Amino acid sequence: MGKLNQGPEMSNVRCAEATFPLIQPLMEQNSSDSTTTTTTTPPPTVAMVGPYLLASTVAKGFGRGAKLLGCPTANMPLSELGEQAEQLQAGIYSGWAQILDGESGSPKSPAPNTVFKAVTSIGWNPYFDNKEKTVEPHIMHEFQEDFYGCRLKLLVCARLRDEKNFDSMEALIEAIQQDIRDTDACLDEEQYKVLQTHEFFGSGV
Ligand code: ADP
Ligand code: RBF
Ligand code: MG
Known about the structure:
205 residues; Elongation Factor Tu (Ef-tu), domain 3; two-stranded antiparallel ribbon; 22% helix; binds adenosine-5'-diphosphate; binds magnesium ion
């Protein structure tokens, strides 16, 4: 295969006195070990959705996000989210999130006036085979403290991919890290960036 992979998609072959272009078979053109392809992950196909506006208190989950995956997620109970969340298609989504004080003023939000980028997993976590659907945003900021019991507003505006099963925990962690990078880039695009100041978030920016 080496020879076919070295050149551009089309090379020449000599036949008697004439030179004819040799069109490489499709498999060879797309071969992953071609010297012309790179190993970086291709950009995702991001689909604009909603925006869906979700609000709930932050509840305890199985305690796996931070400990096992290095990625804490603020779990939003389905019982507080209503029909809209139940109907939301499972998948990984980008959007914006704001943490507010809990009901009747406590606990206090670590950053009530900031609207952060967030990447949200919605579904049954096939790798863990959950029995209940979860809505879990990872907020793209490093917090010093947990904020269980605070209220969370989440605006979901782009769909990155389906949730998937993986052969290993390392593969799931790598996919999550890629989702974080994709969300970071996606939300800088103007059509999503404007939603950071959506009236849903009040005066917070
Ligand atoms: P659980 O299964 O209880 O949700 P996690 O390991 O997913 O446990 O941790 C989630 C908790 O960590 C959140 O409820 C929140 O209080 C806290 N937390 C700290 N930093 C973040 C963050 N950047 N995004 C989401 N939650 C965070
Ligand atoms: N769980 C899966 O089983 N499959 C996935 O494809 C998957 N993707 C995720 C992507 C992101 C950005 C995040 C934050 C979580 C994802 N999860 C996925 C959910 C993960 O399993 C869950 O957050 C932990 O089990 C903690 O509840
Ligand atoms: Mg969580």
